Amino acid sequence: MLRAVHFIEIDKNNNLWIETYSGLLFFDTKNKTAKRVSGKKVDDNVINLENTRSCIKDENGNLWIGTTSSGILKVNPDDQSGVYIQSQKNSNESLADNLIFTTAKDAGGNIWIANGLVGFSIYVPYFFPDDNIIDFFYDKDGVTWILSGNGLYTYDEKTDNVKFMNPEIGLTDETIESFSQDSEGNFWISVYRKTIIWNSKTGEKKYFTDEMGFNPGNMNQVIASIAHLPIAEQQENLEHTFTTWQANYEQLDDVCVFAVKV
Question: Are 149 and 166 contacting, i.e. CB atoms less than 8 angstroms apart?
Answer without folding.
Answer: no
